[in-house]
Fold each of these.
Amino acid sequence: MPPRKVLFLCTGNSCRSQMAEGWLRHYARDRAEVFSAGTRPAGLNPKAVTVMREAGIDISGQRSKHVDEVAKEDFLFVITVCDAAREQCPVFPGALYQLHWSFDDPAGATGSDEEKLVVFRRVRDEIAEQVRTFAQREGFNPR
Protein backbone atom coordinates (compact mmCIF):
# COMPACT_ATOMS: atom_id res chain seq x y z
CA MET A 1 0.00 0.00 0.00
CA PRO A 2 1.46 3.42 -0.91
CA PRO A 3 2.05 5.90 1.92
CA ARG A 4 -0.99 7.96 2.85
CA LYS A 5 -0.55 11.72 2.51
CA VAL A 6 -1.10 13.92 5.55
CA LEU A 7 -0.98 17.73 5.63
CA PHE A 8 -0.65 19.78 8.82
CA LEU A 9 -1.77 23.39 8.40
CA CYS A 10 -1.05 26.36 10.62
CA THR A 11 -0.97 30.09 10.07
CA GLY A 12 2.80 30.66 10.05
CA ASN A 13 4.04 27.11 9.45
CA SER A 14 6.81 27.98 11.87
CA CYS A 15 6.09 25.93 15.02
CA ARG A 16 2.99 23.78 15.53
CA SER A 17 2.57 22.35 12.05
CA GLN A 18 6.33 21.85 11.76
CA MET A 19 6.42 19.93 15.04
CA ALA A 20 3.40 17.85 14.02
CA GLU A 21 5.12 17.03 10.72
CA GLY A 22 8.24 15.94 12.59
CA TRP A 23 6.30 13.79 15.04
CA LEU A 24 4.29 12.00 12.36
CA ARG A 25 7.42 11.34 10.31
CA HIS A 26 8.91 9.85 13.48
CA TYR A 27 5.92 7.66 14.31
CA ALA A 28 4.80 6.64 10.83
CA ARG A 29 8.19 6.31 9.13
CA ASP A 30 7.47 5.29 5.53
CA ARG A 31 3.77 4.60 6.11
CA ALA A 32 2.86 8.25 5.61
CA GLU A 33 3.97 11.04 3.33
CA VAL A 34 3.87 14.06 5.64
CA PHE A 35 3.66 17.73 4.72
CA SER A 36 3.11 21.01 6.55
CA ALA A 37 2.23 24.44 5.26
CA GLY A 38 0.84 27.77 6.37
CA THR A 39 -1.61 30.38 5.22
CA ARG A 40 1.04 33.06 5.99
CA PRO A 41 4.41 31.26 6.27
CA ALA A 42 6.80 32.94 8.68
CA GLY A 43 9.91 30.73 8.52
CA LEU A 44 10.93 27.80 10.70
CA ASN A 45 11.16 28.94 14.32
CA PRO A 46 14.57 28.11 15.86
CA LYS A 47 12.97 27.34 19.24
CA ALA A 48 10.78 24.69 17.58
CA VAL A 49 13.93 23.13 16.15
CA THR A 50 15.59 23.26 19.60
CA VAL A 51 12.78 21.60 21.54
CA MET A 52 12.23 18.93 18.90
CA ARG A 53 15.95 18.16 18.93
CA GLU A 54 15.68 17.76 22.72
CA ALA A 55 13.06 15.06 22.02
CA GLY A 56 15.38 13.34 19.54
CA ILE A 57 13.72 14.60 16.35
CA ASP A 58 15.55 16.80 13.88
CA ILE A 59 13.26 19.16 11.96
CA SER A 60 16.04 21.55 10.94
CA GLY A 61 15.78 20.36 7.32
CA GLN A 62 12.12 21.27 7.07
CA ARG A 63 11.08 24.65 5.70
CA SER A 64 8.13 26.95 6.03
CA LYS A 65 5.84 26.74 2.98
CA HIS A 66 2.74 28.51 1.74
CA VAL A 67 -0.32 26.31 1.40
CA ASP A 68 -0.36 27.07 -2.34
CA GLU A 69 2.82 24.98 -2.70
CA VAL A 70 0.96 21.83 -1.70
CA ALA A 71 -2.50 22.67 -3.05
CA LYS A 72 -2.28 20.15 -5.90
CA GLU A 73 -1.35 17.21 -3.67
CA ASP A 74 -4.01 14.59 -3.05
CA PHE A 75 -4.17 14.34 0.75
CA LEU A 76 -6.03 11.72 2.72
CA PHE A 77 -5.88 13.88 5.88
CA VAL A 78 -5.74 17.66 6.20
CA ILE A 79 -5.25 18.64 9.84
CA THR A 80 -5.36 22.24 11.01
CA VAL A 81 -3.45 22.87 14.23
CA CYS A 82 -4.60 26.40 14.99
CA ASP A 83 -7.96 28.14 14.93
CA ALA A 84 -6.92 30.82 12.43
CA ALA A 85 -5.76 28.21 9.90
CA ARG A 86 -9.04 26.39 10.32
CA GLU A 87 -10.93 29.54 9.39
CA GLN A 88 -8.63 30.33 6.44
CA CYS A 89 -8.03 26.76 5.25
CA PRO A 90 -8.58 26.32 1.53
CA VAL A 91 -10.70 23.42 0.40
CA PHE A 92 -8.85 20.24 -0.44
CA PRO A 93 -11.48 18.36 -2.46
CA GLY A 94 -9.48 15.13 -2.50
CA ALA A 95 -9.01 15.02 1.27
CA LEU A 96 -11.15 12.31 2.77
CA TYR A 97 -10.70 13.65 6.29
CA GLN A 98 -10.34 17.23 7.50
CA LEU A 99 -9.52 17.37 11.20
CA HIS A 100 -8.89 20.24 13.60
CA TRP A 101 -6.58 20.18 16.59
CA SER A 102 -6.15 23.47 18.44
CA PHE A 103 -2.81 24.14 20.14
CA ASP A 104 -1.51 27.30 21.77
CA ASP A 105 0.96 29.25 19.63
CA PRO A 106 4.35 28.95 21.35
CA ALA A 107 5.72 31.72 19.12
CA GLY A 108 3.51 34.10 21.11
CA ALA A 109 5.14 33.17 24.43
CA THR A 110 6.59 36.02 26.45
CA GLY A 111 9.30 36.28 29.08
CA SER A 112 12.88 35.12 29.14
CA ASP A 113 14.26 32.65 26.62
CA GLU A 114 13.92 29.88 29.20
CA GLU A 115 10.30 30.84 29.94
CA LYS A 116 9.56 30.76 26.20
CA LEU A 117 11.21 27.35 25.89
CA VAL A 118 8.95 26.04 28.67
CA VAL A 119 5.93 26.96 26.52
CA PHE A 120 7.52 25.43 23.41
CA ARG A 121 8.18 22.19 25.32
CA ARG A 122 4.62 22.03 26.63
CA VAL A 123 3.14 22.53 23.16
CA ARG A 124 5.65 20.05 21.69
CA ASP A 125 4.54 17.42 24.19
CA GLU A 126 0.84 18.11 23.58
CA ILE A 127 1.38 17.76 19.83
CA ALA A 128 3.41 14.58 20.35
CA GLU A 129 0.59 12.96 22.29
CA GLN A 130 -2.08 13.99 19.76
CA VAL A 131 0.00 12.78 16.81
CA ARG A 132 0.91 9.53 18.58
CA THR A 133 -2.77 8.82 19.26
CA PHE A 134 -3.68 9.71 15.66
CA ALA A 135 -0.89 7.51 14.25
CA GLN A 136 -1.97 4.59 16.40
CA ARG A 137 -5.67 4.98 15.54
CA GLU A 138 -4.98 5.26 11.82
CA GLY A 139 -2.63 2.29 11.72
CA PHE A 140 0.60 4.17 11.15
CA ASN A 141 2.11 1.92 13.85
CA PRO A 142 3.93 4.35 16.15
CA ARG A 143 7.02 3.22 17.98
Amino acid sequence: MARRKKVYEGKAKILYEGPEPGTLIQYFKDDAATQQATARATPTDGRGVLNNRLSEFFMAGLNAIGVPTHFIKRINMREQLIRMVEIVPLQVVVRNFAAGDLAQRLGLQEGTALPRPIVEFYYKDDKLGNPLVTEEHIIAFGWASQQDLDDMVALALRVNDFLSGVMLGVGVRLADFRIEVGRIWEGDFMRLIVADEISPDSCRLWDLRSAEGVDAEGQPRDPRPLADVYTELARRLGVLPSNVTHAGKPTLIN
Protein backbone atom coordinates (compact mmCIF):
# COMPACT_ATOMS: atom_id res chain seq x y z
CA MET A 1 0.00 0.00 0.00
CA ALA A 2 1.33 3.43 -0.94
CA ARG A 3 2.28 5.59 2.00
CA ARG A 4 -0.18 8.41 2.57
CA LYS A 5 0.05 11.80 4.26
CA LYS A 6 0.81 11.64 7.97
CA VAL A 7 -1.92 13.18 10.11
CA TYR A 8 -0.61 12.54 13.63
CA GLU A 9 2.19 10.67 15.40
CA GLY A 10 2.06 9.61 19.05
CA LYS A 11 4.23 7.43 21.26
CA ALA A 12 2.85 4.11 20.01
CA LYS A 13 0.96 4.87 16.78
CA ILE A 14 0.96 6.93 13.61
CA LEU A 15 -2.20 8.05 11.81
CA TYR A 16 -2.25 8.52 8.03
CA GLU A 17 -4.91 9.71 5.61
CA GLY A 18 -7.35 6.97 4.76
CA PRO A 19 -8.43 5.83 1.28
CA GLU A 20 -11.93 7.27 1.74
CA PRO A 21 -13.24 10.47 3.36
CA GLY A 22 -13.82 10.00 7.07
CA THR A 23 -11.25 7.21 7.39
CA LEU A 24 -7.68 6.94 8.67
CA ILE A 25 -4.96 4.32 8.59
CA GLN A 26 -3.57 3.54 12.05
CA TYR A 27 0.01 2.23 12.11
CA PHE A 28 1.28 0.49 15.28
CA LYS A 29 4.88 1.26 16.21
CA ASP A 30 7.09 -0.89 18.43
CA ASP A 31 7.39 1.90 21.00
CA ALA A 32 5.32 1.39 24.14
CA ALA A 33 2.75 3.96 25.14
CA THR A 34 3.57 5.43 28.54
CA GLN A 35 1.39 7.11 31.14
CA GLN A 36 4.09 9.43 32.44
CA ALA A 37 5.18 12.48 30.48
CA THR A 38 8.76 12.03 31.68
CA ALA A 39 9.05 8.35 30.80
CA ARG A 40 10.70 7.26 27.58
CA ALA A 41 9.09 4.81 25.19
CA THR A 42 11.35 1.80 24.65
CA PRO A 43 11.30 0.09 21.23
CA THR A 44 10.62 -3.65 21.40
CA ASP A 45 10.70 -5.77 18.24
CA GLY A 46 7.26 -7.09 17.34
CA ARG A 47 5.23 -5.11 19.91
CA GLY A 48 3.42 -3.13 17.21
CA VAL A 49 2.49 -6.27 15.29
CA LEU A 50 1.03 -7.89 18.39
CA ASN A 51 -0.79 -4.75 19.52
CA ASN A 52 -2.34 -4.49 16.06
CA ARG A 53 -3.59 -8.09 16.24
CA LEU A 54 -4.82 -7.78 19.83
CA SER A 55 -6.57 -4.46 19.28
CA GLU A 56 -8.24 -5.92 16.18
CA PHE A 57 -9.44 -8.90 18.23
CA PHE A 58 -10.97 -6.74 20.96
CA MET A 59 -12.41 -4.02 18.71
CA ALA A 60 -13.95 -6.51 16.28
CA GLY A 61 -15.42 -8.41 19.23
CA LEU A 62 -16.99 -5.23 20.60
CA ASN A 63 -18.42 -4.34 17.19
CA ALA A 64 -19.92 -7.83 16.98
CA ILE A 65 -21.86 -7.41 20.24
CA GLY A 66 -23.12 -3.94 19.37
CA VAL A 67 -20.55 -1.78 21.17
CA PRO A 68 -19.51 0.81 18.54
CA THR A 69 -15.79 1.35 17.85
CA HIS A 70 -13.72 3.17 15.25
CA PHE A 71 -12.29 -0.12 13.91
CA ILE A 72 -13.18 -1.09 10.33
CA LYS A 73 -10.63 -3.76 9.35
CA ARG A 74 -6.99 -4.81 9.65
CA ILE A 75 -4.99 -4.01 6.53
CA ASN A 76 -1.71 -5.80 7.22
CA MET A 77 0.60 -6.78 10.09
CA ARG A 78 0.93 -3.23 11.45
CA GLU A 79 -1.95 -1.22 10.00
CA GLN A 80 -5.71 -1.05 10.35
CA LEU A 81 -8.40 1.03 8.71
CA ILE A 82 -10.38 3.10 11.20
CA ARG A 83 -13.09 5.74 11.26
CA MET A 84 -12.02 9.33 11.78
CA VAL A 85 -13.32 10.65 15.10
CA GLU A 86 -13.04 13.72 17.29
CA ILE A 87 -11.28 12.43 20.40
CA VAL A 88 -12.80 13.48 23.72
CA PRO A 89 -9.81 14.81 25.76
CA LEU A 90 -10.30 12.26 28.52
CA GLN A 91 -8.98 8.85 29.41
CA VAL A 92 -11.75 6.66 30.79
CA VAL A 93 -10.37 4.16 33.32
CA VAL A 94 -12.35 1.21 34.66
CA ARG A 95 -11.04 -0.49 37.80
CA ASN A 96 -12.13 -3.94 39.01
CA PHE A 97 -9.36 -4.47 41.59
CA ALA A 98 -7.27 -2.12 43.70
CA ALA A 99 -3.92 -1.52 42.05
CA GLY A 100 -1.42 1.20 41.27
CA ASP A 101 -2.52 4.77 41.97
CA LEU A 102 -5.93 3.78 43.36
CA ALA A 103 -4.41 1.47 45.97
CA GLN A 104 -1.94 4.20 46.98
CA ARG A 105 -4.55 6.97 47.16
CA LEU A 106 -7.01 5.01 49.27
CA GLY A 107 -4.60 2.86 51.26
CA LEU A 108 -5.96 -0.38 49.82
CA GLN A 109 -4.04 -3.62 49.57
CA GLU A 110 -2.94 -4.36 46.02
CA GLY A 111 -5.27 -6.97 44.55
CA THR A 112 -8.32 -6.18 46.69
CA ALA A 113 -11.54 -6.80 44.75
CA LEU A 114 -13.61 -3.62 44.51
CA PRO A 115 -17.32 -3.70 45.51
CA ARG A 116 -18.19 -2.84 41.91
CA PRO A 117 -16.33 -1.54 38.86
CA ILE A 118 -15.20 2.04 39.40
CA VAL A 119 -15.02 4.46 36.47
CA GLU A 120 -12.56 7.36 36.66
CA PHE A 121 -11.73 10.18 34.25
CA TYR A 122 -8.25 11.56 33.55
CA TYR A 123 -7.57 14.70 31.53
CA LYS A 124 -5.42 13.90 28.49
CA ASP A 125 -2.31 16.06 28.82
CA ASP A 126 1.10 14.41 28.99
CA LYS A 127 2.74 17.60 30.26
CA LEU A 128 0.45 17.53 33.29
CA GLY A 129 0.79 13.78 33.77
CA ASN A 130 -2.84 13.08 32.72
CA PRO A 131 -4.38 14.20 36.03
CA LEU A 132 -7.45 12.63 37.64
CA VAL A 133 -10.47 14.94 37.21
CA THR A 134 -14.03 14.98 38.49
CA GLU A 135 -17.25 15.31 36.53
CA GLU A 136 -17.47 18.90 37.82
CA HIS A 137 -14.12 19.74 36.18
CA ILE A 138 -15.15 18.08 32.92
CA ILE A 139 -18.45 19.95 32.62
CA ALA A 140 -17.04 23.29 33.85
CA PHE A 141 -14.24 23.29 31.26
CA GLY A 142 -16.47 22.03 28.45
CA TRP A 143 -14.58 18.82 27.74
CA ALA A 144 -17.84 16.87 27.74
CA SER A 145 -21.48 17.33 28.71
CA GLN A 146 -23.33 15.48 31.45
CA GLN A 147 -25.02 13.34 28.78
CA ASP A 148 -21.61 12.57 27.27
CA LEU A 149 -20.35 11.47 30.69
CA ASP A 150 -23.35 9.23 31.26
CA ASP A 151 -22.85 7.69 27.81
CA MET A 152 -19.11 7.20 28.41
CA VAL A 153 -19.71 5.43 31.71
CA ALA A 154 -22.28 3.13 30.09
CA LEU A 155 -19.91 2.46 27.17
CA ALA A 156 -16.95 1.77 29.48
CA LEU A 157 -18.95 -0.68 31.61
CA ARG A 158 -20.06 -2.61 28.52
CA VAL A 159 -16.43 -2.81 27.40
CA ASN A 160 -15.52 -4.00 30.89
CA ASP A 161 -18.09 -6.80 30.80
CA PHE A 162 -16.77 -7.98 27.43
CA LEU A 163 -13.07 -7.74 28.25
CA SER A 164 -13.42 -9.29 31.72
CA GLY A 165 -15.23 -12.31 30.28
CA VAL A 166 -12.78 -12.79 27.43
CA MET A 167 -9.76 -12.47 29.73
CA LEU A 168 -11.19 -14.79 32.38
CA GLY A 169 -11.79 -17.39 29.68
CA VAL A 170 -8.04 -17.58 29.01
CA GLY A 171 -6.96 -17.48 32.65
CA VAL A 172 -6.29 -13.75 32.95
CA ARG A 173 -7.68 -11.31 35.53
CA LEU A 174 -8.49 -7.84 34.15
CA ALA A 175 -7.54 -5.59 37.07
CA ASP A 176 -8.13 -2.32 35.23
CA PHE A 177 -7.94 -0.75 31.79
CA ARG A 178 -8.37 2.55 30.00
CA ILE A 179 -10.13 3.51 26.80
CA GLU A 180 -10.47 6.65 24.77
CA VAL A 181 -13.76 7.79 23.31
CA GLY A 182 -14.41 9.62 20.07
CA ARG A 183 -17.30 11.63 18.67
CA ILE A 184 -18.68 10.87 15.22
CA TRP A 185 -21.49 12.60 13.35
CA GLU A 186 -24.08 10.85 11.23
CA GLY A 187 -25.94 13.77 9.68
CA ASP A 188 -26.97 15.98 12.58
CA PHE A 189 -26.74 13.13 15.06
CA MET A 190 -23.63 12.76 17.24
CA ARG A 191 -22.69 9.59 19.07
CA LEU A 192 -19.75 8.34 21.11
CA ILE A 193 -17.68 5.29 20.14
CA VAL A 194 -14.60 3.48 21.46
CA ALA A 195 -11.46 4.79 19.75
CA ASP A 196 -7.64 4.58 19.91
CA GLU A 197 -6.78 0.96 20.83
CA ILE A 198 -7.35 -1.84 23.32
CA SER A 199 -4.13 -3.74 23.96
CA PRO A 200 -1.76 -4.72 26.80
CA ASP A 201 -0.50 -1.11 26.71
CA SER A 202 -3.87 0.00 28.09
CA CYS A 203 -4.67 -2.89 30.47
CA ARG A 204 -3.37 -4.25 33.78
CA LEU A 205 -3.46 -8.04 33.53
CA TRP A 206 -2.83 -10.69 36.19
CA ASP A 207 -2.15 -14.34 35.44
CA LEU A 208 -4.65 -16.70 37.12
CA ARG A 209 -2.85 -19.81 35.88
CA SER A 210 0.02 -19.18 38.25
CA ALA A 211 -0.73 -21.42 41.25
CA GLU A 212 1.24 -19.29 43.67
CA GLY A 213 -0.72 -16.22 42.62
CA VAL A 214 -4.25 -17.33 43.56
CA ASP A 215 -6.02 -18.69 46.62
CA ALA A 216 -8.58 -21.50 46.84
CA GLU A 217 -11.34 -19.18 45.56
CA GLY A 218 -9.30 -18.19 42.52
CA GLN A 219 -8.64 -14.67 43.80
CA PRO A 220 -5.17 -13.16 43.40
CA ARG A 221 -3.19 -13.73 46.62
CA ASP A 222 -0.20 -11.76 45.44
CA PRO A 223 -1.01 -10.04 42.12
CA ARG A 224 1.35 -11.21 39.40
CA PRO A 225 1.51 -9.55 35.98
CA LEU A 226 1.06 -11.85 33.02
CA ALA A 227 4.60 -12.86 32.05
CA ASP A 228 5.69 -11.87 28.50
CA VAL A 229 2.29 -10.21 28.26
CA TYR A 230 2.11 -9.38 24.55
CA THR A 231 3.15 -12.79 23.24
CA GLU A 232 1.39 -14.82 25.94
CA LEU A 233 -1.92 -12.97 25.67
CA ALA A 234 -1.88 -13.23 21.86
CA ARG A 235 -1.10 -16.96 22.16
CA ARG A 236 -3.93 -17.62 24.61
CA LEU A 237 -6.41 -15.69 22.45
CA GLY A 238 -5.27 -17.49 19.31
CA VAL A 239 -4.06 -14.41 17.42
CA LEU A 240 -0.27 -14.83 17.72
CA PRO A 241 1.45 -14.42 14.32
CA SER A 242 3.72 -17.39 13.69
CA ASN A 243 6.76 -15.22 12.93
CA VAL A 244 6.61 -12.91 15.98
CA THR A 245 7.97 -13.70 19.44
CA HIS A 246 9.34 -11.26 21.99
CA ALA A 247 9.30 -10.50 25.67
CA GLY A 248 8.08 -7.30 27.19
CA LYS A 249 6.12 -5.69 29.96
CA PRO A 250 2.93 -3.65 29.52
CA THR A 251 2.56 -0.03 30.43
CA LEU A 252 0.34 -0.14 33.50
CA ILE A 253 -2.40 2.27 34.45
CA ASN A 254 -1.43 4.57 37.28
Amino acid sequence: MVPLTHYLIFSAVLFTIGVLGVLVRRNVIVVFMSIEIMLNAVNISLIGFDRYFDQNDGQIFSFMVMCVAAAEVSIGLAIIISLFRNKPTVNLDEFNILKG
Protein backbone atom coordinates (compact mmCIF):
# COMPACT_ATOMS: atom_id res chain seq x y z
CA MET A 1 0.00 0.00 0.00
CA VAL A 2 1.25 3.46 -0.91
CA PRO A 3 1.70 5.73 2.15
CA LEU A 4 -0.36 8.89 2.50
CA THR A 5 2.71 11.12 2.33
CA HIS A 6 3.37 10.06 -1.29
CA TYR A 7 -0.14 11.13 -2.29
CA LEU A 8 0.18 14.44 -0.47
CA ILE A 9 3.63 15.24 -1.85
CA PHE A 10 2.50 14.47 -5.39
CA SER A 11 -0.62 16.56 -4.86
CA ALA A 12 1.40 19.47 -3.47
CA VAL A 13 3.80 19.36 -6.43
CA LEU A 14 0.92 19.38 -8.92
CA PHE A 15 -0.83 22.20 -7.06
CA THR A 16 2.40 24.23 -7.02
CA ILE A 17 2.84 23.72 -10.77
CA GLY A 18 -0.74 24.89 -11.28
CA VAL A 19 -0.27 28.00 -9.13
CA LEU A 20 2.95 28.88 -10.93
CA GLY A 21 1.21 28.42 -14.27
CA VAL A 22 -1.55 30.83 -13.24
CA LEU A 23 0.84 33.42 -11.86
CA VAL A 24 3.58 33.31 -14.49
CA ARG A 25 1.88 32.63 -17.82
CA ARG A 26 -0.27 35.20 -19.62
CA ASN A 27 -1.93 32.90 -22.14
CA VAL A 28 -5.61 32.27 -21.35
CA ILE A 29 -5.49 28.62 -22.39
CA VAL A 30 -2.41 27.89 -20.27
CA VAL A 31 -3.97 29.61 -17.25
CA PHE A 32 -7.13 27.58 -17.80
CA MET A 33 -5.14 24.33 -17.96
CA SER A 34 -3.25 25.33 -14.80
CA ILE A 35 -6.53 25.69 -12.95
CA GLU A 36 -7.47 22.19 -14.09
CA ILE A 37 -4.12 20.88 -12.80
CA MET A 38 -4.87 22.44 -9.43
CA LEU A 39 -8.29 20.75 -9.34
CA ASN A 40 -6.67 17.40 -10.18
CA ALA A 41 -4.20 17.92 -7.34
CA VAL A 42 -7.12 18.35 -4.97
CA ASN A 43 -8.65 15.14 -6.34
CA ILE A 44 -5.43 13.23 -5.69
CA SER A 45 -5.28 14.42 -2.10
CA LEU A 46 -8.95 13.49 -1.58
CA ILE A 47 -8.35 9.98 -2.90
CA GLY A 48 -5.21 9.67 -0.78
CA PHE A 49 -7.11 10.55 2.39
CA ASP A 50 -9.90 8.22 1.27
CA ARG A 51 -7.51 5.29 1.04
CA TYR A 52 -5.75 6.22 4.27
CA PHE A 53 -8.94 6.37 6.36
CA ASP A 54 -10.52 3.44 4.45
CA GLN A 55 -13.76 5.26 3.66
CA ASN A 56 -15.52 6.22 0.44
CA ASP A 57 -16.15 9.89 1.22
CA GLY A 58 -13.07 11.03 -0.69
CA GLN A 59 -14.26 9.33 -3.86
CA ILE A 60 -17.63 11.04 -3.60
CA PHE A 61 -16.08 14.46 -3.10
CA SER A 62 -13.60 13.78 -5.91
CA PHE A 63 -16.48 12.95 -8.24
CA MET A 64 -18.18 16.21 -7.27
CA VAL A 65 -14.97 18.16 -7.97
CA MET A 66 -14.78 16.51 -11.40
CA CYS A 67 -18.39 17.54 -12.13
CA VAL A 68 -17.62 21.14 -11.15
CA ALA A 69 -14.47 21.05 -13.30
CA ALA A 70 -16.47 19.82 -16.29
CA ALA A 71 -18.96 22.66 -15.87
CA GLU A 72 -16.10 25.12 -15.47
CA VAL A 73 -14.47 23.87 -18.67
CA SER A 74 -17.63 24.29 -20.72
CA ILE A 75 -18.38 27.79 -19.45
CA GLY A 76 -14.75 28.88 -19.47
CA LEU A 77 -14.13 27.76 -23.03
CA ALA A 78 -17.30 29.51 -24.16
CA ILE A 79 -16.07 32.75 -22.56
CA ILE A 80 -12.61 32.33 -24.10
CA ILE A 81 -14.09 31.75 -27.57
CA SER A 82 -16.38 34.78 -27.30
CA LEU A 83 -13.49 36.97 -26.16
CA PHE A 84 -11.32 35.65 -28.98
CA ARG A 85 -13.98 36.63 -31.52
CA ASN A 86 -13.92 40.26 -30.31
CA LYS A 87 -10.15 40.55 -30.03
CA PRO A 88 -8.05 37.91 -31.85
CA THR A 89 -5.54 37.32 -29.05
CA VAL A 90 -5.29 34.97 -26.10
CA ASN A 91 -2.97 37.18 -24.06
CA LEU A 92 -4.48 38.13 -20.69
CA ASP A 93 -2.75 41.51 -20.60
CA GLU A 94 -4.67 42.69 -23.66
CA PHE A 95 -8.15 41.86 -22.34
CA ASN A 96 -9.70 45.02 -20.99
CA ILE A 97 -13.19 44.32 -22.38
CA LEU A 98 -14.52 43.10 -19.01
CA LYS A 99 -13.56 46.24 -17.09
CA GLY A 100 -16.59 48.14 -15.81
